């Protein structure tokens, strides 16, 4: 003979499960709440940014072609999950005109950057997870 679960027991179990899920979801720490780094371009023209995880090496690399364009007055974001791999990150800011007109090996050879930011997760917390250029 099969024993059936009462409706009252079923509701009780579902309530407990819902409570557990809500409690688990609300226990996220501050690190998980900030999954993005915001980059704001207050410069009068477009820029490119490039992330580097090679700290303490501060040179601009030829091998990684990932430059991301931000037009003047625009804010964008990138994932902050990279802190899990390296506690110190770098961001290079480059003039869009230079990136679009000059060969990359020349940009690297002459270190043609507008600014290099070096930051930790703690720095990002102090900066409200936003890097503003300039």
Molecular structure report:
This protein is of the alpha+beta class and 134 residues long. The protein has one domain (32-133): Immunoglobulin-like. Helices cover 31% and strands 28% of the residues. The chain has five helices and seven strands, in the order ααβββββααβαβ. Strands 3-2-5-6 form a four-stranded antiparallel β-sheet. A three-stranded mixed β-sheet has the order 4-1-7, with no helix packed on it. The longest helix is centred in the first third of the chain and has 20 residues, at 7-26. It is elongated.
Give me the CATH architecture, please. Answer: Sandwich
Number of domains: 1
Q: Kindly, what is the distance between the CA atoms of the first and last residues, rounded to a whole number of angstroms?
A: 76 Å
Number of helices: 5
List how many beta strands DSSP finds.
7
As a percent range, the share of helical residues equals 25-40%
| Order of SSEs | HHEEEEEHHEHE
């Amino acid at each position: 003979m099969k024993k059936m679960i009462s409706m009252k027991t079923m509701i009780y179990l579902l309530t407990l499960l819902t409570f557990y899920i809500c409690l688990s979801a609300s226990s996220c720490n501050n690190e998980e709440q900030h999954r993005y780094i915001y980059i704001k371009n207050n410069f009068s023209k477009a820029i490119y940014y490039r992330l580097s995880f090679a700290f303490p090496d501060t040179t601009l690399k030829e091998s990684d072609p990932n430059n991301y364009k931000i037009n003047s007055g625009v804010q964008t974001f990138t994932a902050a999950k990279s802190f899990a791999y390296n506690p110190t990150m770098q961001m290079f800011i480059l003039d869009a005109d230079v990136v679009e007109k000059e060969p990359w090996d020349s940009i690297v050879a002459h270190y043609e950057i507008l600014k290099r930011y070096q930051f930790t997760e703690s720095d990002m917390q102090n900066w409200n997870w936003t890097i503003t250029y300039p």
